[in-house]
Write a structure and sequence with these properties.
Residues about 5-20 have low confidence and may be disordered. Helices cover about 15% and strands about 30% of the residues. About 50% of the residues are buried. It is of the alpha/beta class. A 7-stranded parallel β-sheet has the order 3-4-2-5-6-7-8, sandwiched between helices. Strands 19-21-26-23-24 form a 5-stranded mixed β-sheet, with no helix packed on it. It has 3 domains: about 10-325, Peptidase S8/S53 domain (Rossmann fold), CATH 3.40.50.200; about 335-430, Spermadhesin, CUB domain (Jelly Rolls); about 435-549, Jelly Rolls (Sandwich).
Length: about 550
C-alpha cells in the first residue's frame, strides 16, 4: 500500500534552523512568514510506519492527549485505547509508536513525512509554530512486519478521526478499497476532516487509493523545474502538485539525522503542511474552502508539461495567494486563471468582470461546468470557440454540463440583469495522451508523400503505438528519407518493415535519437512504419519523405 521512490543516505546533519531543515522544495510554495493571530491549534495525524519522537525536527510538535493520565494503565478518555498519550500503534495494539530498534532504514517513512509537515508549518509561523501545530503519530506497521505494506492504514485513519485530527496525511498509495475502508473515509470526510493523499509512484494515469476516493485531496509530484516527476502518477483526479524530488527531511537513525528522498509521499506531506497553515489562520474554514484556496490560487503548469495537460490538477499552490484568498472575500473575484484546467469563476456586482475566457494549454475533449447558484434566473451564455453552446438561466446549469472543445468563453448577460453574486465551477476533460497525435493503423495508398509522428511543434506522446501502412503501385519499391528526427535515444524507436507485418525477418531498420538516418529502400511496394514510445522522456518527433521508384 505504501510506495517508496528513490534512494537515500541517512547522515547526521546539524545545519538546521530551530531544529527544522531548510529545503529548496519548501521555497517553491511561496510560503510567506505570518504572525498567527487566532491562537488556534491544528492537529495533523500522520498515518504511517513509525516515528522517532525525540528527533529535533519533531519533538516540539508531538501531540499529547491531555485527557489521558500517563502511566496509569487506564483508558481515561474512554476511547478504547489505554494510555494513548502520543498517538497509537494500531498494528501492535499498544501506545508505542516508535521505530523498532535496528529497523530505522526500513521504518523511516513516518518520521520523514511528519518532519516535512513540521518544516512547512515552521516556515510560515516561526516561533508560533510549535504552539499551533500538533502532530498525531499513528503507527500502522507492526514491529514484526516482513514488508512495508500498510495493511492497517485505514484503521489508522479511523483512529485519527476519533482522536480529533483536523488533517490526516496519508502519504502512501495502492491496494483496493473494501466496503469497510470506504466507510471509514466517508465518515472522516463527512466529519469535515481534511484528508491528503498521494497519487502514487507508478507513472500511470491513475490516482491510487486512498487519493482516488472522492473528497480526498489528491497530490502529484513535480521536480525543481516544475515538470512532472518521472515516477509520479497523474490524471484528471489530481487536485494539485507539490515538489517531490530530493526533498529534505528527518530520518529516525538519530535525533539529528536527515535524508533527501523522492516521491509523491513528500509532495503529499508538503500539501498537508500547507493545509495546516491555512487551517491555523482560518480555524472556521471548511475542508472545501481550504481545498478551494489551494486550487484556485495555484500556478498552472500545463505550459511546462504539454504531455500531461489537464492531468496535473490546478498546478502548484501559491501559499501567499491562498492566504489572501481566505482572508479577503473579494480576492477570489480576481483569482481566476484563464490557463487553468480546473477552477472557479466568481462574480460580484460592480466589483468583478462578468465574462471569462478559458484557454488552457493543450487539447481537450471539452469542459464540465456548473453554477454554484442553482436558483439564479439571470442569463448566461457559453461559447466553445465561436459557437454558442448554451444560453439560458444560470440555474439551468446547476448540475454539471459538458461542452466539447478546448477554448471557451462564459458571459453573464447584462440585459437580463446581473446577479448580486454567483460562482461557476469548471474542469477540463482530458484526451488520452497515448492517442493524442497518432493511434492505431493508418493506410496510405499513394506513391509519394510525407509521414510524421503528428505532434507538430509539441513533443510526441508517451506510451504511443502508431502504425502507417504505405502501399505504392505494383512493381514499385519505396524509398524513405528522413527530414527530421528527435526521439529518446535507444528507447523510442521508429521501426520500418518491408511488407505488412512486424515479423523480425521483415525488419528493414529501426532508428532513434537525433542523428539523421540513412536513406533506405524497400524490397516490395509495401512498407509498414511503426512508432513505439515508452512512458518516460519524449522528443520533438520525426518526419520522413517516401517516394515510389
Amino acid at each position: 500500500m505504501k510506495t517508496h521512490a528513490g534512494a537515500y543516505n541517512a547522515l547526521p546533519h546539524d545545519t538546521v534552523r530551530n531544529g527544522i531543515p531548510d529545503c529548496r522544495a519548501y521555497e517553491m510554495m511561496n510560503i510567506v512568514r505570518q504572525k498567527l493571530m487566532t491562537g488556534a491549534t491544528v492537529k495533523v495525524a500522520v498515518v504511517d510506519d513509525g516515528f522517532r519522537l525525540t528527533h529535533k525536527t519533531l519533538k516540539r510538535f508531538i501531540f499529547t492527549n491531555e485527557k489521558e493520565i500517563p502511566g496509569n494503565f487506564q483508558d481515561d478518555d474512554n476511547n478504547g485505547f489505554v494510555d494513548d498519550i502520543h498517538g497509537w500503534d494500531i498494528s501492535d495494539n499498544d501506545n508505542n509508536v516508535s521505530v523498532p530498534n535496528g529497523k530505522e532504514n526500513i521504518y523511516y517513512h513516518g518520521t520523514f513525512i511528519a518532519g516535512i509537515i513540521a518544516a512547512v508549518f515552521d516556515k510560515c509561523y516561526g516561533e508560533d509554530a510549535s504552539r499551533s501545530l500538533q502532530i498525531i503519530p499513528v503507527k500502522v506497521l507492526s514491529d514484526q512486519a516482513h514488508s512495508t505494506y500498510l495493511a492497517d492504514g485505514y484503521k489508522g485513519i479511523k483512529y485519527a478521526c476519533d482522536i480529533g485530527a483536523d488533517i490526516i496525511c496519508c502519504a502512501w498509495s495502492g491496494g483496493q478499497f473494501s466496503e469497510e475502508e470506504r466507510s471509514i473515509l466517508d465518515a472522516a470526510i463527512r466529519k469535515g476532516i481534511i484528508i491528503i493523499g498521494s497519487t502514487g509512484n507508478f507513472f500511470t494515469e491513475k490516482a491510487e487509493p486512498p487519493s482516488s476516493f472522492p473528497g480526498v485531496f489528491c497530490v502529484a509530484a513535480v521536480d525543481s523545474m516544475l515538470r512532472k516527476s518521472k515516477y509520479s502518477n497523474f490524471g484528471m483526479r489530481t487536485d494539485v502538485v507539490a515538489p517531490g524530488d530530493s526533498v529534505y527531511g528527518p530520518h529516525p537513525l538519530a535525533d539529528n539525522a536527515f535524508i533527501h528522498e523522492n516521491g509523491t509521499s513528500p509532495a503529499a506531506a508538503i500539501i498537508a503542511g500547507c493545509a495546516a497553515i491555512l487551517r491555523a489562520a482560518n480555524p472556521k474554514a471548511t475542508a472545501s474552502e481550504i481545498f478551494d484556496a489551494l486550487r484556485n490560487t495555484a500556478l498552472p503548469l500545463d505550459s511546462l508539461n504539454l504531455t500531461w495537460c489537464g492531468k496535473l490538477g490546478a498546478g502548484l499552490p501559491d501559499m501567499a495567494k491562498a492566504f489572501e484568498y481566505l482572508k479577503n472575500p473579494d480576492y477570489k473575484l480576481w483569482s481566476f486563471s484563464p490557463s487553468g484546467t480546473k477552477g472557479e469563476m466568481f462574480f460580484k456586482k460592480n466589483k468583478s468582470p462578468h465574462s471569462w475566457e478559458i484557454h488552457p494549454h493543450g487539447a481537450f475533449k471539452g469542459v464540465h461546468l456548473a453554477s454554484g447558484s442553482p436558483s439564479e434566473k439571470k442569463k448566461i451564455k457559453i461559447f466553445s470557440g465561436d459557437s454558442l453552446c448554451f444560453s439560458g438561466p444560470a440555474g439551468g446549469i446547476s448540475k454539471w454540463i459538458f461542452i466539447p472543445g478546448s477554448r471557451f468563453k462564459v458571459e453573464l448577460q447584462p440585459e437580463s440583469g446581473l446577479p448580486k453574486e454567483m460562482n461557476l465551477k469548471y474542469y477540463m476533460e482530458t484526451i488520452d495522451s497515448t492517442t493524442l497525435y497518432c493511434h492505431d493503423l493508418r493506410e496510405i495508398n499513394q506513391d509519394e508523400g510525407f509521414v510524421e509522428d503528428g505532434s507538430g511543434s509539441e513533443n510526441y506522446a508517451n506510451n504511443s503505438s502508431c502504425k502507417w501502412q504505405l502501399n505504392a503501385a505494383d512493381n514499385r519499391r519505396i524509398r524513405i528519407e528522413f527530414t527530421s528526427i528527435d526521439t529518446q535515444p535507444n528507447v523510442d524507436f521508429i521501426w520500418i518493415f518491408d511488407g505488412t507485418s512486424t515479423l523480425p525477418e521483415n525488419l528493414l531498420a529501426k532508428f532513434s535519437g537525433t542523428s539523421m538516418p540513412p536513406v533506405i529502400t524497400s524490397y516490395t511496394n509495401k512498407v509498414l512504419v511503426w512508432f513505439l514510445t515508452d512512458g518516460n522522456s519524449t522528443g520533438k518527433g520525426w518526419e520522413m519523405k517516401f517516394t515510389a521508384q
